[in-house]
Amino acid sequence: MYGPGDVRVEERAAPRLVEPTDAIIRVSAACVCGSDLWPYRGIEEMQWPAPMGHEYAGIVEEVGDEVTTVEPGQFVVGSFWATDNTCEICRAGYHSACVDRVPMGALGAQADRLRVPLADGTLVATPDIPPDDLVASLLSASDVLGTGWFGAVAAEAGPGKTVAVVGDGAVGLLAVLAAEQLGAERIIAMSRHASRQRLAREFGATDIVEQRGDAGVAAIKELTNGLGAHSVVEAVGTQESMMQAIHATRPGGHVGFVGVAHGVALDGMDLFWSLAHVHGGPAPVRRFLPELIDLIWNRQIDPGKVFDLELPLDEAATGYRAMDQRDAIKVLLRP
């Protein structure tokens, strides 16, 4: 990306092994993330030009001398953070704050080949080379599925719970799927777009709320005997979405926030009187990857449905425009 709205596909130097803990993969599929739209819209400053993309799945081509858990020829999925998986923070399940973490977006996964640092702690191999119809779902595990899953876990979605999801992008929709998998009794998806409402219902939503802001909060309270939801996932990252999430949560309930926050400020007294547990941040996707890959491999979930537009990598700019204009939920790029 050369600046807001300016996406170009060009030749870069081929990635090579830098550290003995690196791997080089040939990317089978990459995609455009909702967070990529912040700089695209000029809301987030970057050092231009910037390589783009942090979601990836593909075939290992080469590994450094110290890599032991993956080998050339394997199909792998990795998180949007490269992590060692051994530090105290990783062992506690918060890989996205690994003391050695490397942001994969800085390396640019929207490409045909990619260097993955800390390969042993970052990459998880599938049991075999997947059939083509599983690739999109496996790619989703790299970020949006893992992020939606963390949102639902942080919100303590589970049996007997009513879960509300604020946001109908790929992360929000997959938070619906996660809540269903975690056993939630009732799942309220907040969306005013028919195609996204249909997908939310496919993923397990029992109710749809089209209103936003205070009206959206009132609608959720009406569905929950005036109390609010036990669990609310915030998957947007704006002031309105965060306040909608907190206000829609019943006292003692849990908010899991995974939208990348821009311009969000919480009033201390507002939070104080909510009596809500608030937890979230950048998802520790690596924590969930083995479980998510297993669910996908055994065809128990089909998160790849969030990709409603597939393009060759050469047409990445078209993909960005489609997501920016909400013509697509999520765009898959095939190198």
In short:
The chain is 31% helix and 22% strand. By secondary structure, the protein is α/β, with parallel strands linked by helices.
Explain what this protein looks like in three dimensions.
The structure is a single chain. By secondary structure, the protein is α/β, with parallel strands linked by helices. The protein is built from twelve helices and 15 strands. Strands 1, 2, 3, 6, 7, 14 and 15 form a seven-stranded mixed beta sheet that branches. A six-stranded parallel beta sheet has the order 10-9-8-11-12-13, with helices on both faces. Helix 6 (170-181) links the parallel strand 8 (162-166) and strand 9 (186-190). The protein is globular, with a radius of gyration of 19 Å.
Keywords:
335 residues; alpha/beta; Rossmann fold; 6-stranded parallel beta sheet; 12 helices; globular
Number of helices: 12
What distance separates the N and C termini?
A: 17 Å
Shape: globular
Task: Provide the CATH superfamily of the largest domain.
Answer: Medium-chain alcohol dehydrogenases, catalytic domain
Unreliable parts: none
Share in helix: 25-40%
String of helices and strands = EHEEEHEEHEHHEHEHEHEHEHEHEHE
Which whole number gives the mean pLDDT?
96
Rg from alpha-carbon coordinates: 19 Å
Strand content: 15-25%
> How would you classify the helix and strand content by structural class?
alpha/beta
Number of strands: 15
What is the CATH topology of the largest domain? Answer: Quinone Oxidoreductase, Chain A, domain 1
| CATH architectural name of the largest domain | Alpha-Beta Complex
Largest sheet: 7 strands, mixed
Number of domains: 2
